[in-house]
Amino acid sequence: MDSLFLVLQFIFAVVLTIAVLLQKSSSIGLGAYSGSNESLFGAKGPAGFLAKFTFVVGVLFILNTLALSYAYNTQRSKSLIDSIDASALPSAPSEVPAAPESSAPAAPKAPANEQK
């Protein structure tokens, strides 16, 4: 089921991108540089259809995103820590080892103050 939602997500993303790119811009935008202000389909023919189609595909994209996140969340609701076998873990040492004795030489004693 997850793979179906994932494939649909890619399809909706591509279709939504194409639908947005086919629409006529409300401003001149980059058309001022090319000198063309005409749409691919003509003056105003498919403008209403493309706007409605983009809205519907956008809503389907959002619903599919929610369904995909729900499917992944329910499938992976078990934590990774819960799946670890406790007997396979190394046991903690029962005694804390004593600190080893220092092998460094002792510091020389300070000379006593002799008064004369």
From TrEMBL:
Topology of this chain in the membrane: Multi-pass membrane protein
Pfam short name (any one): SecG
Entry coiled-coil feature ranges: none
GO annotation, cellular component aspect: plasma membrane
TM segment ranges: 51-72
Major subcellular site: membrane
Molecular function as annotated in GO: protein-transporting ATPase activity
Classification via InterPro entries: SecG
Gene Ontology annotations of biological process type: intracellular protein transmembrane transport; protein secretion; protein transport by the Sec complex
Superkingdom as given in the UniProt entry: Bacteria
Free-text function comment from the UniProt entry: Involved in protein export. Participates in an early event of protein translocation.
Record-given protein name: Protein-export membrane protein SecG
Organism of derivation: Campylobacter rectus (Wolinella recta)
Source species taxonomy: Bacteria, Pseudomonadati, Campylobacterota, Epsilonproteobacteria, Campylobacterales
